[in-house]
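Help needed: design a sequence for this.
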């Protein structure tokens, strides 16, 4: 029986989102496979994390496409994006803490593509007068990442209801990003 790689990755993501220090034995158990099978497909934790990174980037890019970032007001595009990315927020929260993914020359180019699209969205919102201009688009992008990760952790720990995730992320981000009229 061939290994269902997507099932293994999603099981690993679900576990590591809850317990970032989980061992490869625990990941194998969560996926319903032996440790030996897991190691045949992922030589170690680094290989597993890199595979999860590829999954996370793919999930982000799908959410960016689904959100139609260039359509309508930028604020509405942010709402659509947060709703679209919510299912992957836990995985992103885990990846966000994996420093080796963002160091050195082996950084996946997918992160730069995602950053560029988000930065363009925030710049468009500034140019249209929706968002404050004293906060850089790069900072707004980082703030969104941080809020997505924080929201995912708060939902996972039961401190925030899952149904409130999108509202809380968007309202805090845009409440701080909206330009006030004099």
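Sure. Designed sequence:
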């Amino acid at each position: 029986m061939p290994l269902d790689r997507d099932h293994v990755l999603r099981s690993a993501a679900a576990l590591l989102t809850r317990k970032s220090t989980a061992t490869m034995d625990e990941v194998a158990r969560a996926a319903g496979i032996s440790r030996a099978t897991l190691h045949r497909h992922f030589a170690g934790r680094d290989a597993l994390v890199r595979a999860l990174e590829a999954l996370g980037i793919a999930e982000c890019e799908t959410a960016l496409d689904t959100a139609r970032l260039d359509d309508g007001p930028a604020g509405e595009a942010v709402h659509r994006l947060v709703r679209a990315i919510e299912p992957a927020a836990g995985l992103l929260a885990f990846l966000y803490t994996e420093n080796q993914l963002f160091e050195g020359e082996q950084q996946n180019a997918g992160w730069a593509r995602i950053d560029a699209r988000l930065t363009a969205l925030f710049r468009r919102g500034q140019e249209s007068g929706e968002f404050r201009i004293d906060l850089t688009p790069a900072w707004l992008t980082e703030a969104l990442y941080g809020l997505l990760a924080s929201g995912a952790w708060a939902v996972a720990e039961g401190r925030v209801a899952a149904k409130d995730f999108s509202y809380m992320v968007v309202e805090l981000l845009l409440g701080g990003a909206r330009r006030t009229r004099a």
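The CA atoms of residues 28 and 63 lie 28 Å apart.
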